[in-house]
Amino acid sequence: MSLPRLRLVPSALALAAVALLAAGCSTTPASPPPTSTGGTDATAPSQSKDPSGEDVEAAWLAGGGSIGIVTWGSSSKDCQPSQAEVKADGQTLQVTLKDRADGKTPCTADFGPRAIAFPVPAGVDVTKEVDVNVTYGELRADADLDALPSPPSDTGMGQPSAGWFDDQGILLMTYGSSSCPPMPEQVLQTKDQISVSFATIDRVCTMDMAPRVTVIQLPQEREGDGPFTLTLSGDHLDAEVPVIG
Q1: Cβ 243 vs Cβ 164: under 8 Å
Q2: How far apart are CA 172 and CA 198, in angstroms?
Q3: Buried b or exposed e, range 38-50, using 16+ CB within 10 angstroms
Q4: Quick one: the chain helix, strand, coil %, rounded to 5?
Q5: What pLDDT is recorded for position 123?
Q6: Cα-flanking dihedrals φ and ψ of residue 79, to 5°?
Q7: 72: which strand partners?
Q8: Phi, psi angle pair for 62, to nearest 5°
Q9: What angle do CA 114, 118, 119 make, to 5 degrees?
Q10: Model pLDDT for residues 206-222, shown as the tens digit of each residue
Q11: In terms of Cα–Cα distance, which of 196, 179, 154, 168 is closest to 65?
Q12: Of the candidates 47, 29, 64, 229, which has an alpha carbon nearest to the alpha carbon of residue 150?
């Protein structure tokens, strides 16, 4: 049986797609409950910490060409960060996050991680530690990024990339319609490999090609600091992606 095909429709968003990476990308909306056919999965993940709305985390993406920021709160699209203003002072980044909410938009009462990404500013050396100071409304928080072994290259631009934001969380950047972000359906974890399947849904999508950042929460903390591979399947995302950081 062949998979359902996405129906694409034109949208004004297509004209702004190239600016979405600089403006940032939000995580996916609530996804169907994960299922498992064996192994260690995300049906009942343990938590390495109890995050609050006062926490932020950061991860390298695109081989060090971009940075993802994780905040916690409502999953409602209009109630999470959608813009990132970034200023660099040496190896310190001042990041101001803004969302679409006007103060009158109802927000769901759920509480979970949301992510936004932005390109690394010119002059920042990714082979040295980077300090990220985040302002988001009344929130003031800091996150650190460890130095990478080498600077990013243009090779593979537009391809999926992934980075650790903590020992039990990964940010995944993919490219596609901004109105149809990936929806994780199942997560299986071994010592050095994580397999993620995505729901393939027959839905109407805009015709833009934009970066989307998805939070992948693991069922358990990673073991050691060795190399990890993220195997993607479903929703036209079949790929193997190294996880950096």
Answers
A1: yes
A2: 12
A3: eeebbeebeeeee
A4: 5, 45, 50
A5: 95
A6: -120, 30
A7: 113
A8: 50, 40
A9: 155
A10: 999 999 999 999 999 98
A11: 154
A12: 64
Q: In one letter, which amino acid is 242?
A: P
**pLDDT, position 75:** 86
Residue type, 39: G
Question: What's the pLDDT at 45?
Answer: 40
Question: Which DSSP string corresponds to 9-63?
Answer: E--GGGGGGGGHHHH--------PPP--SSSEESSS---SS---TT--EEEEEGG
Token pair of 133 as six digits: 């100071």
Query: Which uninterrupted H or E stretch holds 73?
Result: strand 66-73
pLDDT score, position 223: 83
pLDDT along the chain (245 residues), means of 10: 40 37 40 32 42 84 95 87 93 92 78 94 96 94 95 77 95 93 93 92 90 94 87 94 93
- Is the full-model pTM beyond 0.85? no
Question: Rg of the Cα trace of the chain?
Answer: 17
CA atoms within 13 A on the CB side of 196: 26
Q: State residue 18's pLDDT score.
A: 34
CA 29 to chain centre: 12
Distance separating the N- and C-terminal Cα atoms of the chain: 39
Q: Is 191 exposed, middle or buried (0-12, 13-18, 19+ CB in 10 A)?
A: exposed
